Amino acid sequence: MTDIALRLKDELLRLSEDDRIALAQLLWDSVDSESDVELDDAAWIAELERRSADADSGRAKEQPFREAIEELRGEPT
Asked: What is the count of structural domains for the chain?
């Protein structure tokens, strides 16, 4: 992400859930409709429910966001 995107992200995460949802929809609608990205609502919902159940049951390994990003980028923690 660019510096401006990172700054915006920090600010946007302070908004209410309703405002974030409205902005997410606005951003999604602004993306070129001929993009290769397709959302399968049922698949996303199933994945979110699976992850939520894993978190609720304690099966999910929790990790601070920054550490997870560093790990994905191959950076030392």
From this structure: 1
Answer whether 0.85 is exceeded by the pTM: no
**Which residues span the domain enclosing 20?**
3-28+40-73
pLDDT in tens, 13-44: 899 988 988 998 898 888 876 666 666 788 88
* Cα 20 to the center of its chain, rounded Å: 12
On whether residue 7 sits in a domain, the answer given is yes
Residue 67's closest CA among 75, 58, 55?
75
**Helical ranges in 1-77 per DSSP H:** 3-12, 17-30, 41-57, 65-73
